[in-house]
Amino acid sequence: MDLIKAEIDISALRHNFRLARKLAGGKTLVCAVIKDNAYGHGLLPVAAVMADEGADFLAIADLSDAEKLRKAGFKLPLLNISGLLPSQASGAVSLNVSQSVSNADELLALDRAAGKQKKCALVHVEVDCGMGRLGVPAAEFSALFEKAKSLKNIFVEGIFTHFPSADTDLPVTRKQAGLFKETVRQCPANIIYHSANSAALINCPETRMDMVRPGLMLYGLYPSGTEKKIRLKPALSLNTSVIMVKKARKGDRVSYNGTYRAKKDTELAALPIGYGDGFSRLLSNAGEVIIKGKRYPVAGRVCMDLTMLDIGKNSGIKPGDEATLIGKNGGENITASEIALKCKTIPYEVVCGINKGIKRIYF
Ligand SMILES: *Cc1c(COP(=O)(O)O)cnc(C)c1O
């Protein structure tokens, strides 16, 4: 019944994971990043594929995802890359989450919760080497690490950093990797050291260390500037059906505020998808959609639940025909990156923005 379908190609996910594994090489662990509903691809199905492919860790950014994964029976180590409020500590411990920590408050809360549960809290200390987000400033790392060692219910499983510009600035990334290595120089060797996101994994071999944390590339999307270095397979396509076709005369205006005017007599196709579904309003008069292997322009404003296309005369398009917003259709292909460019954003936001209520179909 659903007129909008997000289809996810499991073999593409497998292909991309294997490439990440190959790039990581040797004994380097792979932590598959499946935060935010696996970048819109669906948390549990993607987790199942990654587990089956031999991921060593799964990274999430919300403890409720850990709960869903544990409930579904996943035994893999889970790394929560987000911060932790004291009120969340007991949940993190009971779910056996490896929790990233940036300050003493988080450590103390985890130590207390672990003591109560007669367990050890697993932590990954995050070092801020220039990301300026979470993480302990590099200069304060030693003190925090000593604190962690002094708490008897804390086990430092990992130490990591995150790069702000591995897609756009390699010299800065190398410098930050150098600062990270320098900062942790005196720490024990049996800790898991990690830093690389997709862009660093592809662009910067010295960031691979003991574990890598690819996200974007697993879904077949390229960090900017890596298109020529690797052959990924996009996993997600977004399709709907034409719901109505009608004639328009030269000069007729289309959709809110009449921002589109037909230049000649033409036909319009209505699609039952809009910004409420994640098809950005920034695609008004800018986006394209593929029907029967041909691209057609979005005419006028994208509405909450409807989008109009100018399909010209004699297209042969009828209600019920498949319309592809993301993915391949005939010889044409629209990528999340193409849409991101038009919306002045990144492909991450395009795929994450696909409404969670839209049915995901796996094949
Ligand atoms: C999102 C994220 C990743 C994955 O980044 P990609 O660019 O999607 O590969 C890795 N590590 C951290 C800390 C992240 O927040």
Provide an overview of this structure.
By secondary structure, this protein is an alpha/beta fold. It folds into two domains: 210 residues, TIM Barrel, CATH 3.20.20; 127 residues, Lyase, Ornithine Decarboxylase, Chain A, domain 1, CATH 2.40.37.10. Strands 2-3-4-5-6-8-9-10 form an eight-stranded parallel β-barrel, surrounded by six helices. The model has no long low-confidence stretch (mean pLDDT 97). The protein binds pyridoxal-5'-phosphate.
Structural topology:
Blueprint: E1 5-8, H1 10-24, E2 29-33, H2 35-39, H3 43-52, E3 57-60, H4 63-71, E4 78-80, H5 89-94, E5 97-101, H6 104-116, E6 121-128, E7 136-137, H7 141-150, E8 154-161, H8 170-183, E9 192-196, H9 198-203, E10 211-212, E11 236-241, E12 244-248, E13 253-254, E14 260-261, E15 266-271, E16 288-291, E17 294-297, E18 307-310, E19 322-329, E20 332-334, H10 336-342, H11 347-352, E21 359-362
Parallel strand pairs: 1-21, 2-3, 2-10, 3-4, 4-5, 5-6, 6-7, 6-8, 8-9, 9-10
Antiparallel strand pairs: 1-11, 11-19, 12-15, 13-14, 15-18, 16-17, 16-19, 19-20
Record keyword descriptors for this entry.
Lyase, Ornithine Decarboxylase, Chain A, domain 1; 2 domains; binds pyridoxal-5'-phosphate; 363 residues; TIM Barrel; 8-stranded parallel barrel; alpha/beta
CATH class of the largest domain: Alpha Beta
Count of extended strands: 21
CATH fold-level name of the largest domain? TIM Barrel
Overall average residue pLDDT:
97
Instruction: State Rg.
Output: 24 Å
User: How many domains?
Assistant: 2
CATH architecture descriptor of the largest domain: Alpha-Beta Barrel
Low-confidence stretches: none
